[in-house]
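Two quick folds needed for the group meeting slides. Do the first one here.
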Amino acid sequence: MKKIVSLILIVSLLVVLGFSTYSCKPKEEKPTWTPKEEYKLSVVVGPTFWWGLGAQKFADDVKEKTDGKVNIKVYYGGQLFAGKQTNEFQLMASGAIDFAWGSTINWSPVIKEMNVFSLPFFINTFENLDKMEYGETGKIIFKKMEEKGVVGLAWAENGFRELTNSKREIRRPEDLKGLKIRVVGSPIFLDIFRQLGADPTNMNWADAVTAFQQGTVDGQENPVGVLIPVKIWQYHKYATFWNYLVDPVIVGVNKKIWDEFPDDIKKAIKEAAEEAAEYEKALCRAGLDGDKSINILKEKFGVTPEVADPVKYLEDNGMKVTFLTDEEREAFIEATKPVFDEWVDKIGKEVVEAAKRDMGK
C-alpha cells in the first residue's frame, strides 16, 4: 500500500513539474511583417488627369504616413493590364497588382452591382452619388469586392459623363439619331445609345481621335476631367451636360496583401486613401458644384484649381455648351426606360433598391 501511495505522489509531482515547465515556456511570437520593396498600383489614365494626380497623392501620402515602410509605385496608362481595362480587377484579385484606382465601369464585368452607377439618368447629382457611396449601396459593393479578393478603401471619382459631338446641339433623343458615338466598351453603354437611335462604337482613345479628325466618328462621352486634358474642342463644337450616368473610382487593394499589413499600417493606408480620394473628388467637381469643391481644395489642400469654371473654359475654347431643362431630361428618361428596366434585372434588384433608399427616391 505504501508503495502505491509513494508511486502516486511521484507521478503527481512529475505532472506538476511538467505542467510548470510547460506553462513557463514563452509564447511563440507571430512572424515579423516584412514589407515588399515595391507595391504596384494600377491606373488607367496618365499622370496629368485628375484621376492620375489622386493616385500619385495616395502613393506619396502612404509613404509619409508609414514612415517609408510602404512604397507604392504608380503605373500609369494601363501598363499593368496590357491595354485591356476590364482585366484590372482580376489582376488585383490574383495579386499580380497590389493596389488600383479603378473605374466602376471597368470593374463591372466582375462586380455586376457596379453597373448601378451606369443606369441611365438615375443618379444625376453629386449629392445623390455621395449618398449612395457612403450608404447602403457602397457597403454592398465593397462586400461583393471583398468576396472576390479585393478590399475597397475609399471612393474617388472620374465624374458624370457628358456628351460632345461635331454635328449639332443635342437637346432631345431625336437629335442623336444616326450619330456615330464613341463609347466605353461596357454593354450598358452600347444599349443606351442604340436605344436613343445613335450608332455606338467602342474603340481606344488614339483610334477615336483619328476617327474624329477623319469625320468617321461624330461624338463621344466623357467626364469634364477627361474633356479638358484631351482638348476636346479640337474635334467637337457641341457639348451637352446631361449627367446621364456617373463614373466613380474606387481605391482598392488585394485582400491577401491587406490582411498581411499590421493594424497601424492599415490605419495609415486607409487614412491616405480617404484623403487622396477627397482631394481627387474636389479636383473633378471644382466649378461644377458651386464653390464647395474649390473651397475644399483651397482650405484643406492649399490648392487653387487651374480651371475654376470648366463650362466657361469650354465655351472660351469655342464650344457651345447645352444644359437640359427638366422637361428635356424627362424625354431622355422616358426614351431610355427599356434599357433601365432590362439592366435592373441584370444588376440585381437588391442594390438598385438600396440605391433608391440611399437617395430617398
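Then this one, please, same format:
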Amino acid sequence: DEVNALVAAGAAAIAVGDALESAGDGTLRKAATEAATADTQRDGIVAYALEAVDNSGGGTAVRIKAEVA
C-alpha cells in the first residue's frame, strides 16, 4: 500500500528507496543505520520512500509518498 506520510520540519534528506521509521510524533524520518548512537531510540522500518524530499532546512512539515513495509 502507498501512503502520503508526513515528514517533520528539519528532518534529514530522504532519497527514493530510503527506509523510513516512526519519529514517535506522527511523522516519519529516515531510518537509522547501525551506526546510530545508543541514546537514539529507533522504532523500526515502517515504510520506504517513493519520492525524494529534502526538508532539512524547512520550517514546516512536508508530505512524502511512501510504500508501507
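Slide caption for protein two: The mean pLDDT is 85.
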